[in-house]
Amino acid sequence: MQVGIFHFGYLSFGSKLIIHKLVKNCIKSEMKVANVLFDQDSKQYGVTEFTKDALEDWEHIRIGVLPNSLNEDIHMTLQQFDSIIILGGSRQQVSYLEKYAKGRVLSVPISILNDFEGSQYTLGYDTALNVVVNNILKIIDTIDSLKYGKLRVFCAQIPGTTANVLLEDVATAIDGNSIYQPDEKFWDELANRLDEKYKAGTTYSILVINEAQDPEQVQEKLAQKLDIDFKWNHFDESQCLGPYPTAVDRVLAMKLAQCVVRWMDEVRQSAYLVVKEHQVEFENI
Question: What residue stretches are annotated with the Phosphofructokinase domain (predicted)?
Fold first, then answer.
């Protein structure tokens, strides 16, 4: 049997743990397992087979990831595998791969945005939330210790281009304001809130945006309405995940890995793994 691993997004601790357990189980069962990657220069897909030696030096293993946009060349690559494990990606991407796959497909919900349809949680979300919030709280400590003669506004830009749970939860956790697809009425209301907060004695305000919003445009809009000192910082996906996953993500990674191995051993049909009430369930595609 040929098993293919298709990975979307940043390679995290959880992803590597799942892949390691899958590869170990496949090699033990004498199955061939390979990682599908994409070369940005040639725009071609490639396949790298995992060997027994790779397990002995797993810390230094190189695992390829796929871009969000797939081209038709992926169709021939899909035909090489009897079973396909998709780590991350959206339901639309999973459906596309499942449509052209020769064999069965298993989707594993991995995303720092917690935006996989049908799953209450995604692997990586809890770590990202904790990392971003803790970093912003450190910035707040610095801002609060330095008094200015005008309102200080700090804007944190996080990954993503759509309205999602991470955007809202970060803003809620640090008592800030999230911005997504604002109109002129929104800017007026935001400026009023920031001004009232400043007059009440709070010398700073925190804004949270994602990559759909340009921080320089945020500064421009607010500067038209308020006298502010504006600073911003971008958190990319690698920063959000950091080197140390939370205990919640470690537990979820183990549960997902166990289900992936079970799916392989039991020869189940194509399915999504989804998290409901802290338990991992199979949902048929």
Answer: 77-263
